[in-house]
């Protein structure tokens, strides 16, 4: 019985990484072009964060401060974009949870050859 218990525990541990989300750092253009719409564009593409009218938003949205108070470009009234690094959990299509947020100087994203110009 001990052998079976040990095997079952080992199998359970092997499946844990598949179930758990690994946090990742993503840096690029954080964009808020219109009310309620947020996304991050990094070297791998566009990561939706929040859409206006959608009921679900990732945990941790409150970690994003007023990005217009620092290095920021206005594109639509009070809305626009900045450069930032976020520690997030994703489902390979969108951001599910924001664990931390750090706004960077615009020049950091402008000088990153892997990033295009923000939209």
User: What oligomeric state best describes the polypeptide chains here?
Assistant: single chain
The level of helicity is 10-25%
Low-confidence stretches: 1-19
Name the overall outline: globular
What does this structure look like?
This protein is an alpha+beta fold. The protein has a single domain, classed as Beta Barrel (OB fold (Dihydrolipoamide Acetyltransferase, E2P)). Helix content is 19%, strand content 39%. It contains two helices and six strands. Strands 1, 2, 3, 4, 5 and 6 form a six-stranded antiparallel beta sheet that branches. A hairpin with a 2-residue loop joins β2 (38-42) and β3 (45-50). The protein is globular and about 30 Å long. 19% of the residues are buried.
Q: What are the salient characteristics of this protein?
A:
2 helices, 39% strand, OB fold (Dihydrolipoamide Acetyltransferase, E2P), six-stranded antiparallel beta sheet, 6 strands, disordered N terminus, 119 residues, alpha+beta
